[in-house]
Write a structure and sequence with these properties.
TIM Barrel; globular; alpha/beta; 2 domains
Length: about 625
């Protein structure tokens, strides 16, 4: 009699666990488990999810909309870029106006003339999708776009425009609502009702999770935030006299898509389940919500920006597999300033390849049935619903923001995230890991201005401040560039490799990456034996700092002698690649700092610069 599929699966898992136990060499199995920032345990292996069914969303075979950001100040340049994008694969464009959540300092002017020029020759009634992002300073842009459509003689019902009213998101990002929510809500819903009466289909309001994500928040916090905001908009529209069935159709969602592929897939799936639960609570039969995605700002880097292409590809892929209806990929140079044509083309083509070559859109909810993704989806949903209920108990999103509830919870995760970045346990390839001090510069149309946080006038509560994870390391690299300009060479550390290559290669490679992530050039010379050779190589290197690199066995016999020789040769500080022990002899010999996986790399590098500049 043939074995059942369950018996076969159990047998295979037993075989797998036996191999794992052998590879772990006595280490506990728990070392293979990990946790998300929400405390969700991620197992190393999952069985197939039984009785799983696809979550209703984007239909099988229907490609998501390829959206391109238009955040160019000059309307003529914006128009040229819109036409370039639409003629080369984009489904639609997102107009970013001043004060929008994703305004990084170079948004399109929100004037009638600028809008008319930017949209010139764009056939809005020919299937082109338009998405609007604006904030309090540019909220009139929605009405201007609507007026432009009608002035062109186009029927409002014939255009596909997502208007993007998001006052709660703007409040969260700025901390400065222009008036209380009780006064904002009827004004915004009045605009929505008027646009609907004119014949525009919407959606009109967006529940946008990017303020939470860009401020360092977790998946659960982002989901709870958008759910609470969407419910607030639903209530506000119902109070305006808009039927609930229409109100839910007037709302869409936007989430950040980052390089954590599995959690991003699960997050997008979870949002649909959560919103369906809200619809059911309202007595409505659930209908698939429109969900947009944008690759995450916080994962973008200025150093080795080509690495952003990989991160954005992972984010776009995860959002698409998670069922996103529209995806925007940030150009890889976005953190450096106004992206030029090449970076914008790569952003567009990233999605074209995923659709035309990878065919990711062919299957509806491709992750359905995956044990790992189904488990993560369910756990995110349960935790996010609790987070949503906590916001509701506080009086809703506006009240929770005024009380600082949302900001405090996000700040806790941000602090934990910053510690992990500093310790390089959350690596940024090209910045904190595998940096290239000789990387070639990339071009932008205009360099970004200072990223220091701007304090809004009349700030009422602490905003959710956007940041990028790479910023602390980038500041060190900037300091290295200043040092280079002043001294004609970068700050240096000499790697004193002791013993044979088999003894020092691994730790020397680790030390090189660690120091160069802060812009301190690692200089080494292999095959050194004896204190005299080490001292000569150190002096020839021009370095002020030195780091011993070898095995624990070699350290036992050679480290103290080498350290004393380097101190006598003028080394201002001695590092040792390896974890600290209780060996007082090494400290007495002059070894001041140990570098190892998990050490506070940022603090170590900052102290190194202080010594170099003393």
């Amino acid at each position: 009699m043939a074995e059942s599929s369950l018996e076969v699966a159990e047998g295979r898992e037993a075989d797998w666990r036996a191999l794992v136990a052998e590879a772990l060499k006595g280490a506990p199995f728990d070392t293979l488990r990990s946790k998300s920032y929400d405390g969700i345990v991620i197992e190393p292996l999952y069985g197939r999810a039984k009785n799983a069914s696809p979550i209703p969303g984007r239909a099988a075979g229907q490609a998501w909309a390829v959206m391109q950001r238009i955040d160019l100040q000059g309307p003529a340049l914006a128009n040229a870029q819109i036409l370039e994008d639409l003629n080369n694969g984009a489904s639609g464009v997102t107009l970013v106006f001043p004060g929008a959540i994703s305004d990084y300092g170079y948004a399109l002017s929100s004037t009638e003339a600028a809008i008319a020029q930017a949209l010139g020759s764009v056939h809005l009634d020919a299937g082109v999708t338009l998405e609007l992002e604006f904030g309090p300073p540019s909220r009139q842009a929605a009405g201007m776009v609507a007026a432009y459509v009608k002035a062109k003689g186009v029927a409002p019902s014939a255009v596909d425009i997502r208007f993007g009213f998001d006052p709660l998101g703007a409040m969260a990002a700025s901390g400065a609502p222009p008036m209380p929510w009780s006064e904002i809500a009827p004004i915004v819903t009045g605009f929505i009702a008027d646009l609907a009466r004119q014949g525009f289909k919407g959606p009109f309001a967006v529940a946008d999770g990017r303020p939470v994500h860009a401020a360092g928040g977790s998946e659960v916090q982002e989901l709870a935030f958008v759910l609470a905001n969407a419910v607030a908009y639903l209530r506000a529209m119902e109070a305006q006299g808009i039927a609930l069935d229409d109100a839910r159709r007037f709302i869409f969602f936007r989430l950040a898509a980052d390089q954590d592929q599995f959690l991003t897939i699960a997050k997008f799936r979870s949002l649909r389940k959560l919103w369906a639960r809200v619809e059911e609570a309202c007595g409505l039969a659930p209908r698939p919500a429109f969900v947009a995605a944008e690759t995450a700002w916080r994962m973008m880097t200025k150093r080795d920006p080509h690495g952003n292409i990989v991160r954005a590809t992972i984010g776009a892929l995860a959002a698409a597999v998670g069922g996103a209806d529209a995806v925007t990929v940030l150009p890889y140079t976005a953190a450096l300033g106004v992206p030029e044509e090449h970076a914008r083309r790569i952003a567009r083509n990233t999605q074209t390849i995923l659709i035309e070559e990878a065919n990711l859109h062919r299957v509806a909810d491709a992750a359905a049935g995956s044990g790992a993704i189904e488990a993560l989806t369910d756990e995110l949903s349960a935790a996010a619903w609790k987070g949503f209920q906590e916001i509701e108990r506080a009086g809703g999103s506006a009240a929770a923001l005024n009380a600082g509830l949302i900001q405090r919870e996000v700040a806790k995760v941000r602090a934990e995230r910053e510690v992990n970045v500093a310790r390089r346990s959350e690596p940024l390839v090209g910045t904190s890991d595998f940096p290239d001090l000789n990387e070639e510069p990339v071009s932008v149309l205009r360099a970004a201005e200072s990223s220091s946080p701007q304090t809004a006038a009349h700030q009422i509560f602490e905003p959710l401040r956007a940041f990028r994870l790479a910023e602390p390391f980038e500041r060190l690299r900037d300091a290295s560039d200043v040092y280079l300009a002043k001294h004609g060479e970068r700050p240096r550390v000499f790697l004193a490799t002791l013993g044979r290559p088999a003894d020092f290669t691994t730790r020397a490679g680790f030390a090189k990456t660690l120091f160069e992530s802060g812009g301190i050039e690692a200089v080494t010379e292999s095959g050194l034996t004896g204190s005299e050779a080490i001292v000569k190589a150190f002096k020839d290197s021009g370095a002020k700092l030195a780091c011993l690199c070898s095995s624990d066995k070699v350290y036992a016999s050679e480290a103290a002698k080498a350290a004393k020789a380097l101190v006598a040769a003028g080394a201002e500080h001695i590092y040792l690649a390896g974890k600290p022990g209780n060996d007082q002899e090494l400290a007495a010999a002059g070894i001041g700092t140990f570098v190892y996986q998990g050490c506070d790399t940022l603090q170590l590098l900052q102290q190194a610069f202080e010594r170099l500049n003393a």
